[in-house]
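Task: fold both queries, return tokens.
Query 1:
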Amino acid sequence: MKANIFDVAKKSGLSTVTVSRVLNNAPTVREKNRQKVLEAIKELNYSPSSAARTLKHGRTGVIGLTLTALNDSVFDGVVKSVFDHSQRSGYFLAISIASEASDDTGEASNFLFQEDRVDGIIVLSSLEEERYISELKKKRIPFVVVDSHQEHVYVPTVNVNNYRGGYEATKHLISLGHTDIAHISGQDTFLSASERRKGFTDAMTQAGLSPAKIAVGSFGIHCGYDIMKQWIASGQTPTAVFAADDVIALGAMRALMEAKFRVPEDVSVIGYDDQLFADEVYPKLTTMRQPVEELGEHAVQILLEQMSEPQDAQHKRTTKILLEPKLVVRESTSFKR
């Protein structure tokens, strides 16, 4: 079987990024590492593919993706989509799971943001978004932001229509005859949280209902659990709840069941994201599905378009993609009884 760049990386004990930089004759590679790669290439009789040959034209053949953590099946799905579409386009994917810590200079520290390391960067839902954008622009590295936390005028973004998602989730509960509907929101650090909350408020108002029962918490199971326990203890248990994500919904359902409320017979619950567990919990969770495959596909497409442009034009691109979520009805919502 013909050797590939991964075989070279394994043989040399170095990363594919370093191998790509050696093939590209990047001056920033340590001589010791360069020799290791060259020896591995010779031993394996490695011949660069057509994608690797583009390195001669000043490219690494690598796309970078930075995110905070891989403990979310939605983000996992986006990463897989980015990997698949990068590979089909002849690029390797380098991933940075950032600590979100800044260095002493005030810049967001990320090992991908170095000269000759990658051809472009996908920033996935990072809390260091503003710093990253500033640094990438300064270093003139092509980039696109996925699931942005701020409104950006001159930044290419790929987002989900979270307002529509919040609106449709609430309309679903209203269509089932519920009028006492509560919303447990994520923190305002996230643009997605405020947009979902606005969708909830507008759907309630348009239906002539009061959107007063809103609790702003955080994206986490304890948030849903604690807020729902407070409502139950104060005698303010709603007949339906729109949770800002599936994990919050899971916490709310746990609190309800501990208090002997039945879901959905007594209280309907709808989440957001369609995490992998949503179809496995009891009752199966009604939710708003994120278009993870499309998020990754559009991110790679926009980045490749940027990378093919002259450097002066790269950061003038203002492409903005807004994708639609989808209502997935399962067992946790039902008609008001």
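Query 1 returned. Query 2:
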Amino acid sequence: MDQAIVDLRSDTVTKPTPAMRRAMAEAEVGDDVYREDPTVNRLQERAAEVFQREAALFVPSGTMGNQAAIKVHTRPGRK
């Protein structure tokens, strides 16, 4: 089988295919900070459904995910 390998180690490693670029260019977009991005909203709703949770949050990078986790599990100024 000749299958393409997708390297997910980093968001800067995987190069988008022409079809991926086309999908990005044609995607319906909005401001996700104000919950106005229908694509992100659908992704979060679907993730919550799949993982049987009340809600889900999309973070576009590992760094952002790590920052969210640190903030959930710590308080500023605490050791």
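Both queries returned. Flag for query 2: The chain has a mean pLDDT of 88.
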